[in-house]
Amino acid sequence: MSEEEGRLTRRSFTPAMRSAYDLVTGWMRAAGMVIHEDCIGNLVGTYTANRSAARTLIIGSHLDTVRDAGIFDGILGVMIGLAVVERLHQAKRRLPFAIEVVGFIDQEGLRFGSSFLGSRVLAGSFDPAALLLRDDQGVSVADAVREFGGHPDLIVQEARRAQTLLGYLEVHIEQGSQLERMNLPVGVANTIAGISRATLTFMGVTGHAGTMTMDQRHDALCGASEFVGAVEAYAREIPGLVATVGELCVAPGARNVVPGTATLSLDLRHQDDQARLSALAHLHWRAGAIASERGLSLRWDEAQVQAGTTMAPELRNRLATAIGAAGHTPVEFPSGACHDASVMSGITDSAVLFVRCKGGISHNPAESVTLEDVAAAIEVVERFINELAG
Ligand SMILES: [Zn+2]
C-alpha cells in the first residue's frame, strides 16, 4: 500500500493510506471488532467488553510511513494488537474492559511536517493551528482530513476522558540494537526522549561563480556547512545528545552560482529535557556566531515537538511480569525514538513494548524482524491482557 512504485511511502490521508485502511478494516471486522474512523481519520477497531460501562485499553501505533520506509515501523504495533484480539475472538472470550486497536493516521508527519496529528486528537493535545499546515502541493491538513472523510471542525470533541481509559500500549520495533546485543526478543521502554527541532536559514549574497572573488563572498552554503560540522562535533561531546541535520536546501541552486541562501533542519534529542534545551540554546548561539563571522544573516525558527516522557511504572511492571512468564528476561531501557505513547501518556498510563529488529535498522527498507520475535511479542501482550483482566 504505497504511493510510490517499488518502495514504501505511505503519507497521511492519501489513496495509499485508504487502501491500507480497507485492508486492516477487513481484518478487524473478521476479528469481531466494530470499526469507526474518528474526526481526524484515525482507524479505530473496538472489541467490546463483557459488561457495560467498562473502561478501554487502547493498543495502537501509526499507519503512516517515512519515505522509502521499512514495512514494520508503526504497522507492526497495529498488527500485534489485531492478532491478540483475533485470538480472543477465536476463543469467544470477552474481557471486563474493551480493547481498541488504533491505527494512527499521522505520526511520522512526512506529508505536512506535522507531528502526531493522530494521537494528539485522542490525548486532547491537538493544536488547531496544525490544520493550516500545507503539503508540497498546497493542500492543507483541514482539506486532506475532509477529503479522507473526517471532520476537522469536530476534532476537539474526540479527546478521550481519562476516566474511561485503562491505559495505552504500543508495540513497536526497537529501531535500535540493544535487544540484539542482549539477545532478547522484546524489551520495555522506561522513558522516551524529548525532541526539539529548528529550521535555520543562512542568507548571504548570490554571485557569479567565475567573477565573484573569494574575498567578496558571503556564501550561505559555506556558513551552513560550518554549522553542520559544528552540530556533529558538539553532539559527540555531550553524553546522550543526538543531533541531526537531515534536510539542506540551497538556493538558487546552480553549479555556477554562489549560494545566496541555505536552509537546513536541526533535530535534537536527549533523555533529559534540560540537557536538550541547553544544547538547543548553545547551537542557536553557535549558528549566530558563524553567520556574523561570515557576514551572513540568520533566521532561526525553533519548536519543541515533544517533551521527554516517563512510561507508567504500573504498566511497565505488568509488561515485565508478562515477559518473564513468557520465558524471557525482562529488560528496560530508554527510547531514543519518539512514539505515539509519548503523546498518549498525557491522558492515560502508557507503555511501549519493543521488538528486536535486525541491526537496529529502521526508517529504511532493510527493516527486519523475525517471526519468532513477533510471536514472542504477541504472547507477551496476550499475557499482559489476561493479567489485566484477572
Ligand atoms: Zn514508528
UniProtKB/TrEMBL annotation:
InterPro entries: Amidase_Cbmase (IPR010158), Bact_exopeptidase_dim_dom (IPR036264), Peptidase_M20 (IPR002933), Peptidase_M20_dimer (IPR011650). Zn(2+) 2 binds at residues 73, 108, 363. Zn(2+) 1 binds at residues 62, 73, 172. The keyword Manganese applies. Pfam families: M20_dimer, Peptidase_M20. GO terms for molecular function: hydrolase activity, acting on carbon-nitrogen (but not peptide) bonds, in linear amidines; metal ion binding. Its cofactor is Zn(2+); Mn(2+). Coiled coil: none annotated. CDD domains: M20_bAS. Residues 193-280 form the Peptidase M20 dimerisation domain. Binds 2 Zn(2+) ions per subunit. Keywords: Hydrolase, Manganese, Metal-binding, Zinc. Allantoate binds at residues 197, 256, 269. It comes from the Bacteria. Homodimer. Belongs to the peptidase M20 family. PANTHER family: ALLANTOATE DEIMINASE-RELATED. This is Amidase, hydantoinase/carbamoylase family. It comes from Oscillochloris trichoides DG-6.
